[in-house]
Design goal:
The chain is mostly helical and about 130 residues long. Helices cover about 70% and strands about 0% of the residues. The longest helix is centred in the N-terminal third of the chain and has 23 residues. The two termini are about 35 Å apart.
Length: about 130
């Protein structure tokens, strides 16, 4: 019917959020690649692992059919959070794994805002604005 929404097409908001994710992910991957670490250090390993996971999330989301993309995209942070919780549950309690996990998650959450601010966007409304 004319004016009806096609359930197989992403909404404009979903499309804009996914486009912002793609831009921010590529910028973050570039920043990470330029960061210098001592070869073989834990920091170098952490950046490689982060890059691998982000590249996989980006590839999987981009490769998904339009009608499945939002589902794939929206489940990724949940799966990675579940994995992070599982891994953290095996660390010694004196390392305060839950606090470290939450701090890392909040740092990652803030990176999109930082990147958006670098691009001159106001992300107070949670939506990527056109370049």
């Amino acid at each position: 019917m004319c004016g009806d929404f096609d359930d197989n097409e992403p909404s404009d908001l979903e499309a804009r959020l996914f486009a912002a994710f793609q831009v921010h992910a590529k910028l973050l991957l570039g920043e990470t690649a330029r960061t210098k670490h001592e070869p073989g250090s834990v920091s170098a390993y952490a950046d490689r692992l982060m890059g691998d996971a982000l590249n996989r999330a980006l590839r999987d989301s981009a490769a998904a059919d339009n009608d499945k993309r939002q589902g794939v995209f929206s489940v990724q942070p949940l799966v990675l959070a579940r994995l992070a919780g599982f891994l953290a549950s095996h660390l010694p309690l004196n390392e305060d794994p839950m606090r470290r996990l939450m701090e890392a998650m909040m740092h990652g959450y803030a990176e999109a805002e930082r990147i958006g601010a670098t691009l001159g966007h106001d992300h107070g409304d949670g939506v990527e604005h056109h370049h």
